[in-house]
């Protein structure tokens, strides 16, 4: 839930970036998608009919499939999507930045650089090794701090 400080920070961010060339801004994030067959289904039945045969689910199987992905998008369409094995850690994130994001940016935006990148404030995005990597690549990538 957004509190008043969050709201003010986001309004300030919007006002400070009104005249930004958003066609040169890349947004990146990761997401886990999951499918599951074992969630509760809504069931409407008459009172006192819970255990009637047509109201009982006899088998239960997970069938759940989860996949984590990292992706980036810009004004003229999506960038790459990369599958993340397990929970993404800082070393894996730096590999993605170095091996996927940076080559993709350089391929689409030869000049002028740096290109602006926006990411949220999750721990993996703000840890020291990621900040160090971003500092080393400041000629190619400029971070726009998210409020």
UniProtKB/TrEMBL annotation:
All residue ranges annotated as the Tc1-like transposase DDE domain in the record: 24-147
Any one Gene Ontology molecular-function term assigned to this protein's record: nucleic acid binding
InterPro entries according to UniProt: RNaseH_sf (IPR036397), Tc1-like_DDE_dom (IPR038717)
Gene3D superfamilies: Ribonuclease H-like superfamily/Ribonuclease H
Pfam families membership: DDE_3
Protein name: Tc1-like transposase DDE domain-containing protein
Record lineage: Eukaryota, Metazoa, Ecdysozoa, Arthropoda, Hexapoda
